[in-house]
Amino acid sequence: MLCPAEPTEALRRYVRKYVHVESSLAGVISFWPVPARSVTCLEFTFGEPYRIHHVDGSNPEVNYPSTIIGAKTYQRIRLELHGRVEGFVILFQPTGLQRLFSLPGHVIVNEHYEADVVLGGAVAHLRSRLGEAESFAERIKIADTFLGARIPRVDNESRVDAAVREMVLKQGCVRIPGLASHAGLGVRQFERRFADFLGISPKLYARIIRFEAAIRKRTIFPNGNWTRIAHELGYHDQMHMIHDFQLLSAESPTSLGPHLEYLNSMAAQPQA
Fold this sequence. Notes:
Layout: E1 2-5, E2 15-34, E3 41-45, E4 51-54, E5 61-62, E6 66-69, E7 77-92, H1 96-101, E8 112-114, H2 115-119, H3 121-132, H4 136-148, H5 159-169, H6 176-182, H7 187-198, H8 202-220, H9 226-232, H10 238-249, H11 260-265
Antiparallel strand pairs: 1-2, 2-7, 3-6, 3-7, 4-5, 4-7, 6-8
Helix pairs in contact: 3-4, 6-7
C-alpha cells in the first residue's frame, strides 16, 4: 500500500511528496527493481528491514533505519522485502535535497548511505519522532516542521534548477543546446555546471526523465499502447524506447508492468 501526501506549500519547491509504505508479506518474499530515477529521497524504515541485492553479484546488505538515496542512472540493486513492511519516504524535487542540505548531487548519485552519518544527528532524532507518531498525518507534520526549518532565507533559483524544471515539464523531450542558451551559458559550461550540481550529465538526465514519463503514461492508462507512448515522447520507434528501458532498468517495458505504480510514485513529476 502506497499513500502519498503533499508537504506544506512553503516546502513544495523542495519536497515533491511524502509516501507512507505499508504491507504485510507474511510467508512471502517480494523482489522490487530499482531502475534509473531522477530524484533523491530520505527513507525511514519502521517494519522489517529489507535486503539490498546488487546486480553485480556483491554481497547483499541490510538497509539502514534511515537512508539517503541518490538519483540513479541504471539499475544497480533490487530490494528483497518480507514480513511487515512499513516506511516513511520523503521524495525531494530533483534539486530539493541539494538546496535544503547543501549536498551536491554527485556525492550520492547511484549510492545510498546511512542518513544521519551524511546529514547529521538531527536526522536520527527525526526518525525517532517519526517512529513515535501514531499516524501518517502526524508524521507529515513532523517532517514539515523539520524540513521547513531548513528552507534558506535567500534561495534564488539557479540556472540548473530552471533547466531541470524545463526537462520535467517537457518530459525529457529537450535539446541541450537550447537549455544552455536559455541559461545564458555555452553548452560545455552548462554541461559542467549541471553535472557538478546533480552528478549526472544533462543528456542522460533528460533520458531518465523521458523514461519516467513513459512509466507515468502507462500507469495513468494501463491499457495504453506502448507504441503510442513511444511516439508521444519522441522516440524514433518502439524499439528505441525498449533500448532505453533496457539501458536504464535492465528490463523491458512489459516486465516492469507489475511495478509501474511503485516506480511512478518515486519519479519526478511536473511542478504545479
